[in-house]
Predict the structure of Cell division ATP-binding protein FtsE.
Amino acid sequence: MNSFIPATSIDGQAPPEATGDEIVRLVDVRRRFGGTPALDGISLTARRGEIVGIIGRSGAGKSTLIRCLNGLERADSGEIHIEGRDIARLSEQELQPLRRRIGMVFQHFNLLSAKTVEENIALPLKIEGVAKAERLQRARELLELVGLADKAKAYPAALSGGQKQRVGIARALAARPALLLSDEATSALDPETTRSILALLKDINRKLGLTILLITHEMEVVRSIADRVAVIDVGQIVEEGSVWSVFANPQTEITASLLGGIRPQLPEHIAARLSPTSGIEAILSVDLAGPAAQGALFAELSAALPRSFRLVHGGIDHIQNQPVARFFVGVPTRDPDLPAQVSDFLKARSARVEVLGYDN
């Protein structure tokens, strides 16, 4: 009964070999509104079966990017390749079959209240001209996939927010897209429902080999299911990499700020009393990832530099099966060389170390 098939290109053939497994390739994409650049040289790829998180604050350019990806907005310059075809060079008529290769999941569900759940899911196929029996069969398959097989005849008003989003996801999959765009799909949901929706997206990604681009302002969403993350700010990608490496070692202030809610932070009452120049104890932040986060680092530090220091705060997380750690260490300054010695010891073992200030 399962009729899900591997993604193919717009014309039913495999994507051109030149793109390999790339479903999305953006090259120097630019879009301005008046004198304001909304997208200012975006380059990005997403491969078949990959989940890529695109994260940024409000106004960073995320909405414009997603509208350019689905062809609702035209870029001023640059290339936007979907399955090997540059949509910037397609007419509106040529764009129509491509849009069927792209599924969209919205923040506010966008379900039609006067139609049943199965009718909402089947709607894209009805617009496409698929026979009623076939589109309802597809809707039933998708309802089973998203865990709502018993809700086919229900109306949206009878569903919870999480159930509505599951219907939205099923509708986005109706035409068997190669690419799923998730536009803040969990922002309107409570934390428990968010976790269930993210688990569903990951399950769909695994079962169907579907490429997913997550547009979000929530690092926790990226942390939960993405393979890679791109941080967008004022229309530019300022940082990109595997999720665990970006979380372990953010390179930009905006990334560190976005991570602030889910990485260990120095407690405010300690941070507030730090002096930038002197004190009886230097407070160091220590970031570690991979093998360096698994060893007996602080035992080795105590053996190499047998002086008193203390763990002030911190912890270890696991992201993409990689340990990612952040600790705050207090080092006495009665030996003025000791903070630098501790820092050098930790850096030699692949830690990123920063002196945050001095505590009295």
Residues 88 and 312 are 54 Å apart (CA to CA). The first strand starts at residue 22 and ends at 33.
